[in-house]
């Protein structure tokens, strides 16, 4: 039954969603509403599950003094601080001026922004060492990257500032690459993904694809 | 080790230093420039411009602080414009941090001289519905009943107690939607469900990384306007400053940070060119050695 029940739920919800897309009327709209509400509830529970699992793993790391256990301690402290401050302030905890808001603006935001900003440095370093015009395709990629990189910033205004104001050479080329070449490529990828999604979804709904149930 | 090999083996901290200087120094400079406005940003402005005062606009803030340098200037500029134009603003988020980012945009807008905070009543002129878990299923459910997804706003007020929300049953009661997106769930999901199924008119603000994925939807007309990355933010500030005028200062961080991004791009391109020259020179010398 551990396998049959999830298979039945999956098939029922999947078929209901397909039917209500084409026939959005009673009773299918009510079924869709019911399943959507349940999916939101499951998603909310999944967030809690993930957060509690992180806390559990961090506690294990600290209690067993595993490698880099100190970072797990930081996770526990941060987790508990944010949760306790948020809970203590009630439903309006996100409002400007609350302690939670202060922590969000002065601790969480700078830390997460710093982590993301470091990418700029690593991208620069990696590009220097790895972005090579080794063959025709790589050269094409390199030229396209240069044109988009220069067209998306102020090179037109600074380098070609002497030209008439409406002559934006690099911006025009960059826009062409983004709107025509990129769109063509993205559409091909999107069509491929859509076809793959449809076939995989059908396999899951019909119970052919069962890997999501685990190996037990 | 010869010069070119030494150049290729340069300590990466030197590269980090150059990138740091390229990003940091321009932040202290004040350079004014007039950016050309792209078709997609103009489309976003035109869509907003066509809205009548008191039109209801739904803003979904689907990003978090790491993407804020690109998306927050867009949100700030659009929020200022919408408040100044007396549009009724409904805020929500499919990312937990989104509604807080929206508050930042609101507070920034209220600092403007031309936008008097006392003229805007929470629940009447603007409302923050908060975060709702469920990704695209939230959009799907909003298509049939907003109320079912947001029974309370982010401060705990009941949906029916909010005058702005009383007349809103589903997307049919929304005049325009804007999505600020940094990934999943985001603009792609809004297009696939809200636009495709419920015929919502959608504009989008995206990070530079995500924008290429949204261009097909813009070219097909499913997204009426699109601002991508820092350039999109700067253009948006520029288009509001150019056409809206008045005392609202639209040109802000988007415009200011463009110079940093320009110099940083130049530095990265310079290093790529140097790296390639070194690579070819070394390759040629090795070939010559082998032939001897």
Considering the chains and any ligands shown, give keywords for the structure.
heterodimer, A: 216 residues, mainly alpha, 3 domains, 7 helices, 76% helix, 0% strand, B: 292 residues, alpha/beta, Rossmann fold, 2 domains, six-stranded parallel sheet, elongated
Q: How would you describe this protein?
A:
The complex is a heterodimer of chains A (216) and B (292). With 216 residues, chain A is mostly helical. Chain A folds into three domains: 1-88, no CATH class; 93-130; 133-216, no CATH class. In chain A, 76% of the residues lie in helices and 0% in strands. Chain A is built from seven helices and no strands. Chain A has helices at residues 4-22, 28-63, 69-88, 99-130, 136-151, 155-158, 169-205. In chain A, helix 1 packs across helix 2. Chain A is extended, with a radius of gyration of 26 Å. With 292 residues, chain B is α/β, with parallel strands linked by helices. Chain B folds into two domains: 1-30 and 257-292; 32-251, Rossmann fold (3-Layer(aba) Sandwich), CATH 3.40.50. Chain B is 52% helix and 12% strand. In chain B, strands 3-2-1-4-5-6 form a six-stranded parallel β-sheet, sandwiched between helices. In chain B, strand 4 (176-181), helix 9 and strand 5 form a beta-alpha-beta unit. Chain B is elongated. At the A-B interface, helix 2, helix 4, helix 5, helix 6 and helix 7 of A face helix 2, helix 5, helix 6, helix 10 and helix 11 of B.
């Amino acid at each position: 039954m551990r396998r049959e029940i999830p298979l039945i739920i999956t098939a029922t919800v999947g078929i209901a969603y397909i039917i209500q897309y084409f026939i959005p009327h009673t009773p299918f709209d009510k079924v869709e509403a019911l399943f959507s509400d349940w999916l939101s509830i499951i998603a909310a529970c999944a967030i809690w599950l993930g957060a509690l699992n992180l806390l559990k793993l961090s506690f294990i790391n600290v209690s067993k003094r595993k490698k880099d256990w100190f970072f797990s301690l930081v996770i526990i402290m941060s987790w508990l601080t944010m949760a306790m401050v948020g809970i203590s302030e009630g439903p309006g905890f996100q409002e400007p001026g609350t302690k939670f808001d202060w922590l969000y603006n002065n601790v969480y935001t700078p830390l997460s922004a710093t982590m993301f900003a470091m990418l700029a440095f690593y991208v620069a370093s990696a590009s220097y060492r790895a972005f090579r015009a080794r063959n025709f395709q790589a050269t094409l990629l390199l030229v396209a990257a240069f044109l988009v990189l220069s067209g998306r910033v102020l090179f037109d205004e600074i380098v070609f500032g002497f030209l008439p104001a409406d002559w934006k050479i690099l911006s025009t080329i960059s826009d062409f690459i983004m709107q025509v070449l990129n769109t063509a490529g993205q559409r091909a990828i999107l069509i491929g993904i859509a076809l793959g999604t449809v076939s995989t979804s059908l396999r899951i709904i019909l119970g052919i694809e069962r890997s999501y149930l685990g190996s037990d | 080790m010869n010069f070119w090999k030494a150049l290729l083996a340069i300590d990466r901290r030197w590269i980090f230093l150059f990138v740091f200087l390229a990003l940091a120094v321009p932040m202290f400079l004040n350079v004014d420039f007039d950016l050309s406005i792209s078709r997609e940003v103009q489309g976003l402005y035109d869509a907003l411009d066509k809205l009548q005062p008191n039109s209801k606009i739904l803003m979904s803030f689907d990003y978090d602080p790491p993407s804020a340098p690109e998306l927050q200037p867009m949100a700030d500029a659009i929020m200022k414009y919408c408040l100044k134009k007396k549009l009724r603003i409904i805020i929500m988020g499919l990312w937990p941090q989104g509604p807080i980012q929206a508050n930042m945009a609101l507070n920034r807008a209220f600092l403007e001289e031309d936008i008097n905070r006392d003229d805007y009543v929470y629940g009447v002129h603007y409302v923050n519905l908060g975060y709702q878990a469920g990704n695209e299923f939230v959009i799907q459910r909003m298509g049939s009943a907003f109320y079912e997804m947001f029974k309370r706003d982010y401060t705990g007020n009941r949906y029916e107690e909010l005058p702005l929300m009383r007349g809103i049953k589903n997307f049919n009661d929304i005049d325009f939607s804007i999505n600020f997106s940094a990934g999943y769930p985001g603009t792609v999901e809004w297009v696939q469900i809200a636009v495709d199924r419920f015929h919502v008119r959608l504009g989008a603000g995206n990070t530079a990384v995500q924008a290429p994925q949204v261009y097909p939807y813009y070219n097909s007309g499913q997204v009426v306007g699109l601002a991508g990355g820092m350039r999109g933010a700067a253009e948006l500030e520029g288009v509001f400053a150019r056409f809206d005028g008045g005392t609202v200062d639209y040109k802000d961080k988007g415009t200011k940070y463009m110079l940093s991004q320009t110099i940083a791009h130049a530095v990265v391109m310079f290093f790529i060119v140097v790296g390639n020259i070194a690579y070819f020179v070394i390759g040629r010398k090795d070939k010559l050695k082998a032939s001897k």
